[in-house]
Every structure is written in C-alpha cells, then in structure tokens.
Amino acid sequence: MIGRIDWAGGLARFLSRWMLALLVASYALASILPGPGLWIKDSRFLDHAAVGLGFHPTLPKLMLSFLLLNAGLHVRVSRMAELARRPGTMIAGLAANLAVPLVFIGVLLATSGLWHNSEEFSELLIGLTLVAAMPIAGSSTGWTRAADGDMTLSLGLVMFSTLLSPLLTPMILDAVGLVAPHHYGDDLVRLADHGTGRFLMVWVMVPSVLGMVGRLALGGARVGRCEKGLKPLATVTLLILCYANSASCLPQALGRPDWDFLILVAGVVTALCVATFWAGYELGRALGLDHAGRSALMFGLGMNNNGTGLVLVASTFGGKPMILLPVLAYNLAQHLVAGCANALHRPDQDAGLTL
After folding, report:
1. 60 is in which domain, residue-wise?
2. Would residue 75 count as lying in a domain?
C-alpha cells in the first residue's frame, strides 16, 4: 500500500510539473492521431444503460463529472463560513468574472464588420462566449496555492460559480445571443435553450455537490489518504478529455490551415485571457486586499472550466467543430498566462503587476 501511494505521489508531482507540456502534447496527438479521440467523443455504447433516465451519458460527460466530483471532495465546506465575514469580496469577484469577458465580447461585437468572413467570426464569438459563461476552473486553486494566495477565497469562487452555473450560463448565452447579429446570435440563443441549464445541473453541479457531501461523510482524513491517487487520475482524465475534443477540430484546422483565422483566434483569446487576469489583480487592489487576496482574485477571474465548455460544445455543435478552437486555445493560454502571472506577482512586487 505504501509503495502504491509513493508511486502515485511521484506521478502526481510529474503531472503537475509537466502539465503544460502534456496539454500541448495532447493537442499534438489529436492533430496526427485523431481516431481514438473521435471514438471517445462520439461513443454511444452507454445509451442502452441509460434508457428511461431522460439523459444520455457519454464518456466525455462521465469524465467531466468525475473531475467535478473530485474537485468537490477537496472543498472544505467548513472553511466557507469564513467568507460570511467578507461577502463583498466574494460577490465582487463573481460579478467581475461575468462582467469583464462580457465587456470584451461587446467590444468584439462592435468590430465584427471588420472581419471578412462572418462564419469564422461566428465560430470565434460562440467559442469566446462559452469561455465567458463557464464557471471558474478548479485549477485556479492550484495556481493560487503556488502564489501563497487566499485559499478560502479561491475555493469559494470556484464553488459558488459552479453551483450558480446552471442559472448563470444560459443567461449569459441568451444575453450575448440577443444583441449579436442574427446569423450567430441565433446559435447562442439555441444553445441556451438547448438544455444547457439541465446539462450543467446533471453533469456539473450534481457531481460537485456529491463530492462536497462525500467529504463530509468520509471525513477529511480519509479523503486526504485518497488524494495522492485521485489527483493524478483527475489530471490524466483532463488530458484525455482535451485530446478527445481536440481530435474533432485540430486536424481540420492544422491540416489545411487558414492562417488569418488561426492568428485571429490566437490574438483575441490571448487578449481576453490577459484582460481577465489583469482585471482580477486590479479588483483586488481596488478592494484593498493583500497579496493573498489579490492572487485568489487574479487566478479566479483568469481561469475558466473549459473542460465543461468543450463537452457542451461537442454535444450541441457537433456539426461545427471549429467552435471548439477558441475554447481549446483559451485552455492553453490561461495556463501560459497563469505561469507568467505567478512569476511576476510576488509579495515584493505588489506596487504593480505588468502582464
């Protein structure tokens, strides 16, 4: 047993250290060997087991649920009571997490006529709106911990944004869809009305709550003993999920590259990512928070749960795989920007942060 735990701990450290390289490798593998990924994404062999349940489980949905269940197991609900003494910080963080990307998308909409291909712009807009509508990523807590940030605030942002997602995500999709030109606004409204709230309830909120309840039932000590095994399993699951969803769009995007569109996606996604990280840091300064609080807000606002976005796009827009491209790009960009922010944002540099 001890040997297995030590082996699992070493694997967890390896995966954590090389996470960014492994993520890039999963994208590369999807580009040159998409077959297994497409099988994972499109497999329907679980449908027979789900007859009468009213929903259709797929491997990506089950993998997503496992990730959220695992995240819930590591939320110390008792620590959330500390947030009751400073609800303003939590509310401001959640509000900014919604507002900043929406303002960015509004500016993008105002310039939509400058791009020569309305279909490409539609795919970019839908992908960015999905990024904006997703709850805060659990990986933000890892970066917050690395920066000696406020873990209670960080976990609170992840937990409450996840629990509110069945309500807020359809609202965001509807809001952008109603103001967007009809040829892609209709797609967003259709996505909001196409069971998105139910999807998030079944595959995101319920597993998260079950994880938190499981921690209360099992106790922190038992969960802690399982953590070394669960952590690498969750990381591998995330990498497989990214590989499977990348397989449907990267071979097409890179096989016959449309360079101007790829440059547009890379530039816009990077700009949005930098803007959200910067906004989180500046919000912390405006609220008078210390280094720990600013770190929690910076990584919380900058990192979104794109695994959820990838599964949602794949299950709704299977015929438009290029919509996945902005989501995949943001998934990579947020870890790159997080690494830069972590290097620049140190206690002795709190006079200002330049990203």
Report:
1. 2-8+19-345
2. yes
353 found inside a domain: no
CB 99 within 8 A of CB 277: no
CATH code: domain of residue 245? 1.20.1530.20
> Do 345 and 295 form a contact (C-beta atoms < 8 A)?
yes
Instruction: Please give the C-alpha separations between residue 295 and each of 62, 229, 283, 284, 298, in angstroms, as whole numbers.
Output: 32, 28, 11, 8, 5
Report how far residue 127's alpha carbon sits from residue 150's, in angstroms, rounded to the nearest whole number: 30
Rounded to whole angstroms, the Cα distance separating 277 from 348 reads 19
Residue 292 is assigned to a structural domain of this protein: yes
Q: Say if 350 falls within a structural domain.
A: no
User: How many domains does the chain fold into?
Assistant: 1
Rounded to an integer, what distance in angstroms lies between the CA atom of residue 251 and that of residue 255? 5
Cβ distance 133 to 162 under 8 Å?
no
Whole-prediction pTM value?
0.83
Walk along the chain (355 residues) and give the pLDDT tens digit of each residue.
444 456 767 887 888 788 888 999 999 999 999 999 999 887 766 655 554 555 678 888 888 888 888 888 877 777 777 777 778 999 999 999 999 999 999 999 888 878 888 888 888 988 899 999 999 988 888 888 778 888 889 888 988 999 899 999 999 988 888 877 666 677 788 777 767 888 888 888 899 889 888 888 888 788 887 877 788 888 899 899 889 988 888 998 888 888 999 999 999 999 999 999 999 999 999 999 999 999 999 999 999 988 888 888 777 776 677 888 999 999 889 988 998 888 876 655 443 333 3
Structure tokens at 273: 């990512």
Whether residue 55 contacts residue 204, with contact meaning beta carbons closer than 8 Å, is answered with no
